[in-house]
């Protein structure tokens, strides 16, 4: 009786190639993930945060709105800080005044909430208005808009952005 022969050489080669491709995929995925700058004790003491440019060309910084942690994408073209409705609900933000907004994607409805504290990279600004409900198309990251950025000096140098608290003159 002939024993059935299995192609162990082919299965081994297939397994090795699957592991190689899986490793390459995971490495590429990690390489493409956004770099989110986080404030250090030194940066807080200096009143500035250095944000590296992510692979997608944007700048991301860790922060909070009314104490609820959120990652921001710095958006110099956005008028106000914006978050999606899911974040606002998790953060317990109050309801705001309904309003229409013109975005790159067209006219959308949202709510304006006043008097919130926004912190980005250790830099804290009180009494800001935040737009709730506009889909950023980026998932979780909120948009850090001009109403926050006017309180900092924004410096672009090489592949980094520096946000530095403006000093009273």
Fold blueprint:
Elements: H1 8-32, E1 36-37, H2 41-46, E2 48-52, E3 60-65, E4 68-74, E5 81-83, H3 85-91, E6 97-103, E7 106-120, E8 123-132, E9 142-144, H4 146-149, E10 152-157, E11 160-165
Parallel strand pairs: 1-3, 4-9, 5-8
Antiparallel strand pairs: 2-11, 3-4, 3-7, 6-7, 7-8, 10-11
Main features:
single chain, 169 residues, alpha/beta, Cathepsin D, subunit A, domain 1, 11 strands, elongated
Strand content: 35-45%
Sequence of secondary-structure elements:
HEHEEEEHEEEEHEE
Which topology does CATH recognise? Cathepsin D, subunit A, domain 1
Query: Structural class given helices, strands, pairing?
Result: alpha/beta
Residue share in helices?
10-25%
- Summed up, the helix count is 4
CATH architecture, please? Beta Barrel
Query: How confident overall, as mean pLDDT?
Result: 82
| Total E-strand runs | 11
Number of domains: 1
Low-confidence stretches: none
The largest β sheet comes out as: 8 strands, mixed
Q: From the alpha carbons, calculate the radius of gyration and give it in angstroms.
A: 23 Å
Categorize the overall geometry. Answer: elongated
CATH H-level homologous superfamily name: Acid Proteases
Quick one: CATH class? Answer: Mainly Beta
């Amino acid at each position: 009786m002939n024993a059935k022969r299995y192609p162990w050489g082919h299965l081994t080669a297939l397994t090795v190639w699957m592991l190689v491709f899986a490793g390459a995929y995971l490495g590429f995925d990690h390489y493409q993930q956004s770099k989110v700058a986080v404030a250090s004790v030194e940066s807080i003491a200096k009143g500035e945060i250095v944000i590296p440019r992510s692979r997608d060309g944007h700048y991301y910084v860790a922060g909070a709105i009314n104490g609820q942690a959120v990652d921001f994408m710095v958006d110099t073209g956005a008028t106000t800080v914006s978050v999606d409705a899911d974040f606002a609900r998790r953060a317990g933000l109050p309801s705001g005044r309904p309003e229409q907004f013109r975005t790159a994607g067209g006219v959308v409805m949202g709510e304006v909430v006043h008097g919130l504290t926004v912190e980005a990279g250790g830099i804290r600004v009180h009494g800001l208005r935040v737009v709730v409900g506009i889909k950023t198309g980026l998932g979780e990251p909120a948009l850090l808009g001009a109403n926050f950025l006017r309180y900092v000096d924004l410096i672009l140098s090489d592949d980094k952005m520096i946000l530095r608290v403006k000093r009273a003159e």
